């Protein structure tokens, strides 16, 4: 019995596959993915972007391979990457063969637009020969014509039927190292389709709300859609689709997982929206601290509150806390206990130093995060 059962999430039991060295499904941590938006034929630009995504915490990165020039550059890109790469393939099955040979850990395909059964068989043979997984990607915006005619519009049943048809194509060729996505830009449609699919299959599911929008709108839509499914226990790997830089997708993905207590990375910030009671400029302080602490990968927590109404209570639950006080003197809490005061001018540098020191202690095993003690860490 959990100490806090209202925080528990019972994950759907899926079978596990490997995407390169990264396990997906089963009891493996839910992985965070993103996709490059550089020209893949420009290996340097693509590798540079991959490096930024890796630094942000991406577990798996997808790279589009629309032409021969892209798959030719993919070999160099795959060698440089520190995380497994997924080759995104549409229509041209030979690109899948080339990408598999060039080092792809996974092929993202829609078996229905690859062509004949023999072409699908060739892709499967290439995947088996190179140890590649396959991700079946069903999308409401590109459903097969016969399914649109049958159902009249994209609907959960149509997405699931498409996914099951594609699964059948792979399994007819004795291939089971696959994961599946049934994405839509409509969060209601996507959630319903994933719920239905989760009951019909045992394979890992790749979650996403496709074409979600810009940084703010897309984050909200993705948090509602992906977050709802994860809360239900559905989902093994996620990609937040934003009209923003791919490293932002990674950060948002981790924030969704952190909020649900499914996975932690870096500093979890608790902060107030600020009001007339604030003893310091909370908004600007939080912005400065988030920028200054982006390099911290150790899971831990920091509370930044402008006054004593909720500040002491929140500080008791976090590793480092600061609460606004009078006369430019603010109370600092360490491991939930009041410790000392700090003046405005020194506050940001001082808090950064405290966080860095605490992170080092946690990494060395000489300290434990308050999030672990309070059951908020995955």
Textual characterization of the structure:
The protein is of the alpha/beta class and 378 residues long. The protein contains 14 helices and 15 strands. The strands form three sheets. The chain has an eight-stranded parallel β-sheet. A five-stranded mixed β-sheet has the order 11-12-13-14-15. A hairpin with a 2-residue loop joins strand 1 and strand 2. Helix 6 packs antiparallel against helix 7. The longest helix is centred in the middle third of the chain and has 18 residues.
Can you give keywords for this protein?
elongated; single chain; 378 residues; 8-stranded parallel sheet; alpha/beta; 5-stranded mixed sheet
Radius of gyration: 23 Å
Overall mean pLDDT stands at: 95
Walk across the major sheet and give the strand order.
8-7-6-5-4-3-10-9
Q: What's the shape? A: elongated
What would you call the structural class?
alpha/beta
Q: How much helix, percentage-wise, in residues?
A: 40-55%
The total beta strand count reads 15
In what range is the share of β-strand residues?
15-25%
- Contiguous low-pLDDT stretches (5 residues minimum) are none
Q: Could you give a short account of the major beta sheet?
A: 8 strands, parallel
Give the SSE order as H and E letters: EEEHEHEHEHHEHHEHEHEHEHEHEEEHH
Count of separate DSSP helical elements = 14
CA-to-CA gap between the ends? 17 Å
């Amino acid at each position: 019995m959990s100490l806090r059962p209202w925080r528990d999430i019972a994950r759907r039991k899926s079978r596990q596959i490997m995407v390169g060295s990264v396990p997906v499904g089963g009891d493996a941590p839910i992985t965070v993915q993103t996709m490059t938006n550089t020209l893949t034929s420009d290996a340097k630009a693509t590798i540079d972007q991959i490096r930024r995504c890796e630094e942000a915490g991406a577990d798996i990165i997808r790279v589009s391979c629309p032409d021969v020039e892209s798959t030719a550059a993919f070999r160099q890109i795959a060698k440089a990457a520190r995380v497994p790469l997924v080759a995104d393939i549409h229509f041209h099955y030979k690109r899948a063969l080339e990408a598999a040979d060039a080092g792809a850990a996974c092929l993202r395909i829609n078996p229905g637009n690859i062509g004949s059964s023999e072409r699908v068989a060739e892709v499967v043979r290439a995947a088996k020969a190179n140890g590649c997984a396959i991700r079946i990607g069903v999308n409401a915006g590109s459903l097969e014509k016969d399914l649109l005619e049958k159902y009249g519009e994209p609907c959960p049943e149509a997405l699931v039927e498409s996914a099951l048809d594609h699964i059948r194509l792979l399994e007819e060729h004795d291939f089971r190292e696959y994961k599946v996505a049934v994405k839509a830009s409509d969060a209601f449609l996507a959630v319903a389709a994933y719920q239905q699919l989760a009951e019909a299959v045992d394979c890992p599911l790749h979650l996403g709300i496709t074409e979600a929008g810009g940084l703010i709108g897309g984050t909200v839509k993705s948090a509602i859609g992906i977050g709802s499914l994860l809360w239900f226990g559905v989902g093994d790997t996620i990609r937040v689709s934003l009209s923003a830089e791919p490293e932002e997708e990674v950060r948002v993905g981790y924030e969704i997982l952190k909020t649900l207590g499914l996975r932690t990375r870096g500093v979890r910030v608790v902060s107030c929206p600020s009001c007339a009671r604030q003893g310091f400029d909370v908004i600007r302080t939080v912005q400065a601290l988030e920028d200054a602490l982006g390099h911290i990968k150790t899971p831990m927590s920091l509370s930044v509150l402008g006054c004593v109404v909720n500040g002491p209570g929140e500080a008791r639950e976090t590793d480092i806390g600061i609460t606004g006080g009078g006369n430019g003197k603010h109370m600092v809490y360490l491991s939930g206990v009041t410790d000392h005061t700090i003046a405005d001018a020194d506050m940001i540098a001082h808090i950064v130093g405290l966080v860095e020191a605490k992170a080092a202690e946690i990494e060395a095993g000489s300290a434990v995060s308050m999030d672990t003690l309070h059951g908020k860490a995955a």
